[in-house]
Design goal:
alpha+beta, five-stranded antiparallel sheet, two-stranded antiparallel sheet, elongated
Length: 166
C-alpha cells in the first residue's frame, strides 16, 4: 500500500478508508473533514467541514458506507436577505464503492461533499414564517409593518386577496 499517499489524504482532511485493514464486520468512522471549498455563491458559504458518523462494511468487491452527515453554512435568507446559519443534514446516507483488487484504500470525501450539496435548499429561509421585504420601500417586514400606504390594488383580485388574509 502506498502509505504515504494514504497519510497525506488523511492529514489534508479527506475521509480515506483503509480497506486492506478492514475486518469482515467493518468499522465505525466518525469525525469532521477540513473546511469545505468555496461553493462559488455569495448566498451560501461553508462554515467548516462535513461531520460524519459512518459504518464501513466490506461486501465482496464493494465497500458499503452508511450513516449520517451534517454541515453548517452561512446563508442569506431568500426572502429578507438576513444572514443565518443553515444546518444541512443527511440522516440516512448510504453508498457503495467498488473496490479493485489492487486497491488498499479509498477516498470517499467527494461523495460525502456531493451528498451534502444535494441537500442545500434552492431558496433557504431563516424561518418558515419569514415575511420578507416590502416590495415598495425594501423594509424588513419581520421587524413590523413598514408604513407604506396600502393602495386598493387591482379590484379584479379582491376575491383572492380576501382568501389570503384568512
Amino acid at each position: 500500500m502506498n502509505e504515504k499517499l494514504f497519510r497525506e489524504a488523511v492529514e489534508s482532511g479527506r475521509v480515506a478508508i483503509d480497506v486492506a485493514r478492514l475486518g469482515p464486520d467493518g468499522a465505525a468512522l466518525s469525525g469532521e473533514t477540513f473546511e469545505m471549498s468555496d461553493l462559488g455563491s455569495r448566498f451560501i458559504r461553508p462554515k467548516g467541514g462535513i461531520r460524519y458518523d459512518l459504518e464501513a462494511v466490506p461486501m465482496g468487491g464493494e465497500l458499503l458506507l452508511r450513516g449520517s452527515l451534517s454541515a453548517v453554512f452561512e446563508a442569506e435568507c431568500a426572502r429578507c436577505n438576513r444572514r443565518f446559519d443553515l444546518v444541512v443534514e443527511v440522516p440516512e446516507y448510504a453508498e457503495s464503492f467498488e473496490i479493485a483488487e489492487a486497491e488498499e484504500w479509498i477516498d470517499v470525501t467527494d461523495s460525502l461533499r456531493e451528498e451534502i450539496l444535494l441537500e442545500i435548499p434552492n431558496f433557504p429561509v431563516h424561518d418558515e414564517d419569514c415575511k420578507g421585504l416590502c416590495p415598495k420601500c425594501g423594509a424588513d417586514l419581520n421587524d413590523g409593518p413598514c408604513g407604506c400606504p396600502r393602495d386598493g390594488g387591482d379590484g379584479r383580485w379582491s376575491v383572492l386577496d380576501a382568501l389570503s388574509s384568512k
